[in-house]
Amino acid sequence: MNKKAEGPKKEKVVGTPALFVTEWWTQFLWDMYCPGCQTPLVGRLIAEAIEELGIGDRAIMVMGNGCHAYLAGGLDFDVTSGGHGRAPDIATAMKRVMPDGIVFTVQGDGDCVAIGADALIGALSRGEKITIIMVNNTNYGTTGGQMAPTTIVGQVTTTSPQGRNPDVEGYPTHAAELVATFRGVSYSARGSLHTTANYRRTKKYITTAFQRQAEGVGLSFVEVITACPPNWHMTPIESLAWIEEKAIPDFPLGEFKNVTHIE
Ligand code: SF4
Description:
Elements: H1 3-6, H2 23-31, H3 39-53, E1 59-63, E2 78-81, H4 87-97, E3 102-108, H5 109-115, H6 117-126, E4 131-136, H7 166-169, H8 175-180, E5 185-192, H9 196-214, E6 219-225, H10 229-232, H11 236-250, E7 254-258
Parallel strand pairs: 1-2, 1-3, 3-4, 4-6, 5-6
Antiparallel strand pairs: 5-7
């Protein structure tokens, strides 16, 4: 065969993470989500980080309640779930009976800092050696776009149709900063996925959080800002611009705590 008949040389530069179950399930996973939803990217980040750290056989994911829970069907490691907001309690029990496991929760903002605020504060106070990944889309996405603890001032939701008014509805909760104030916490960071550079940075945050747990140092936490275009009444592209222009000024990105031992 001459060179011309061989055609252009193809090189695979990116592909499906090995810890996604199969191509079929990957398609199923994506089909569950609205166009432009970034929650599946959180699943991809987790799969990539676990694969690169080589901890897939030790990983146990505890799902909260919300759109992120669909991820449970597409990731090839142990997964469980429980009552709304109770994921840190379940993760605590699993970590204590399986201390070699890498136990982490994936929770929405409502699940983590509203319904599950008591479970979160308990785990933070005890310095449980688990990882909490909080998906922050600034509303209750699954149930129709109601105001959440993370809704920014002026943001329109189905329960704040004139925009969140701090005189009536208060101010947003800044979870990553709050978590960083607890003594038993080793790591707290907030990332976003609205640009490739931020995707890579957020992957580093999640990788570091898992590393801290593997080292046995305190609780690690990563908040990820994600687009929810239908409930924001925006196109996917407009959602990315809104994250840059509105969400990030209120929710600054970066690491808020990173220690290798607890004082
Ligand atoms: S409602 Fe929002 S978070 Fe839920 S799948 Fe749709 S875009 Fe994603």
